[in-house]
Amino acid sequence: MGVLRYALAIVLSFSFFNEVRAEISLKDLGLNSSEVALTPKQVKEQKTLETRHSMLKTHEVLGLTTLGAMTATMLTGGSAIGSDAHMYLGMTSGILYFTTAYYSLTAPKPCGIKDRGNIVWHKRLAWIHFPAMVLAPILGYIYKKNEEDHKKSSSLVKQHPTIAGVGYGAFALSAALMTIEF
Q: What angle do CA 154, 157, 163 make, to 5 degrees?
């Protein structure tokens, strides 16, 4: 019975505060609509910021999803021979990775915004994981074809696991920099 009263009190208090907030107007604050109206330039800047925010939020969600797919790909790497799971997970990771990159690279950046803090390192790490994400699938494909045709792979092709691992590590660190507050 006490819990029910407590829950009812919380619900009523939230509804009371919502009603109070709904009744406040610009006039109550001593303002009129012309004082808070945005100029056309400010409206355009606001739209740009909203678009940027939306695209970078999508980049963040896709980045974490990509990290999960890349983790699964790395975990199945040792068992790649005789199984297509690693290949399909790799293709999924690649599609997610480049979709994530698209949202980051095409997000509009208003003038005057300077990168600072962890974002600087987040972008620097892209110089490591981006080339790795281009090379790893190509080398993996060549390696698999050579295995199927019973051909010997070159020393570069044999570096597929190393290049993929370096790319994965740089990507995971890049995600950690943006997810964990340091």
A: 145
Phi, psi of 180 (to 5 degrees): -100, 130
- pLDDT band for position 61 (cuts 50, 70, 90): very high
Q: What is the mean pLDDT of residues 84-96?
A: 94
Q: Do 78 and 133 lie in a common domain?
A: yes
Report yes or no: 164 and 74 within 8 Å, Cβ to Cβ.
yes
Whole domain around residue 6: which residue ranges? 1-37
* Window from 29-33, 119-123, 157-161 with minimum mean pLDDT: 29-33
User: Which tokens hold the place of 51?
Assistant: 């678009």
Judge if 117 and 142 occupy the same domain. yes
Same domain, 30 and 58: no
Find the DSSP H helices in 26-84: 33-36, 40-75
> Are residues 17 and 82 located together in one domain of the fold?
no
